[in-house]
Each structure stands twice: as C-alpha cells, then as structure tokens.
Write a structure and sequence with these properties.
It is a single chain. By secondary structure, the protein is mostly helical. It has a domain of about 80 residues. It contains eight helices and no strands. The relative contact order is 0.11.
Length: about 210
C-alpha cells in the first residue's frame, strides 16, 4: 500500500472558533484593560479565531466553572483548547528566544491552565472516558505533558477508546501499524474509523483506494 500524505495527527472538533464551545457559556468578561497592538474585533466573523491574548482570557475566565462542571465533554473540550493554547504559546516563546532573552518562568496563568487541563484529562482517563483515554494515549505516544514516550501503552489506550466508540482512536492505531509497514492491519483500522465517519480515516481510506474520489 502506498502511504498517502496524512493529515496532522490531531484533528479534533470543538477547538475553533472557541466562542462556540460549550465552556464559553461560563466565561466572565474581564474588568481589566489590556494593551495590545491591534484592537479587538467587535463583530468577529465565525472564521476568524480570537487573538492569543483573547483566547487565554476566554480559557481563564471559564476555568473555575469548567472545573466544577459535571459535564465531561465540556471539560475535555476546554482541556483540549487549553493545552493547544499553552503549546502554541511555548512554541512562540521558543521562536522569540532566538532573537531576545526568554522569560525566566512560564506565566502563572498559563502554568495553572496547563495543570488543570492535564488533571482533567488524567482524571477522566482513569475513569475510562474514551476521549480522555485517547488524549492521554496521544501524550504517551509522543512523550508529552509529563508522560514518557511509550507507543505500546499508547496503543492500549487507543484500543480502549476505540472499543467505546471513539473513532479517531482507530486512526491512531492504523498509523502505528503503518509505521511498522503492517499495511493490512493499518487499513483494517482505517476502515473501522471510516465506517464511523472519522474524517482522518476517511481521508486515508479514500486516498488509498482511489484518488478519483478527489
């Protein structure tokens, strides 16, 4: 099987635009004025995400309500968006450090956001919530957020998530088999994910079985 060019490993719903995410219902407006280069957009089009500063404010303002919420899906959406924001901020800091001194410490708000997001995912993964198990599997596969890289353990996490109907886990298992040239096993998982409507599995499956679909 010729390996098609895959989409990025994380393709999730509920990330952008964040103001449509359920946790945003709980955010409180900030009373503190902020200084920034560009003014806020009063009527932001739905395809324009908030600035990094606005996103951090959204996440922080929703944090306590999210922690107290009984809704695991809202918590995981917030955790996913939070960790994506924290990673992007860290990458931006690394780029900036090439030309100017880096900050001595991670800003306290980002640090607390990261801690709470990791704790939410870890707690729900321990309860065998399928999306949380998938997210922790990603951390284990790639060695992120304090987890040592362990692809075998990540595969087990994906398998548990897939058994509970989390289709994106089929894609990750397929990718692991493809990385070891076990193409038949990879396609089995892509087909399973495709049958459940997973976008990444559909992309890979269609690319492999006939580029005329494009």
């Amino acid at each position: 099987m010729a390996s098609p060019q895959h989409p990025p490993p994380q393709i999730e719903t509920g990330s952008y635009p964040p103001r449509t995410s359920t946790y945003v219902l709980y955010e409180q407006p900030s009373a503190q004025p902020t200084l920034q280069l560009f003014p806020d957009l009063l009527d932001r089009p739905p395809n324009v995400p908030p600035s990094a500063q606005e996103q951090e404010e959204i996440l922080e303002n929703a944090r306590l309500a999210v922690l107290e919420s009984p809704d695991p899906e809202m918590q995981l959406t917030w955790a996913f968006d939070t960790l994506a924001h924290v990673e992007a901020a860290a990458e931006d800091e690394r780029r900036m450090a090439r030309t100017q001194p880096s900050r001595p410490l991670t800003p306290s708000i980002q640090r607390q956001l990261r801690i709470d997001a990791v704790n939410i995912v870890s707690f729900l993964a321990d309860q065998h919530h399928p999306r949380a198990e998938y997210m922790r599997g990603m951390w284990t596969e790639f060695g992120k957020f304090g987890h040592a890289q362990n692809k075998a353990e990540a595969f087990r996490a994906y398998k548990r998530a897939a058994a509970k109907g989390y289709a994106r886990a089929e894609y990750r298992m397929g990718m692991q088999f493809e990385s070891t040239n076990e193409h038949a096993k990879a396609m089995k998982h892509y087909r399973l994910g495709e049958a459940q409507g997973d976008a990444a599995c559909c992309y890979v499956s269609n690319a492999d079985c006939g580029r005329e679909h494009f």
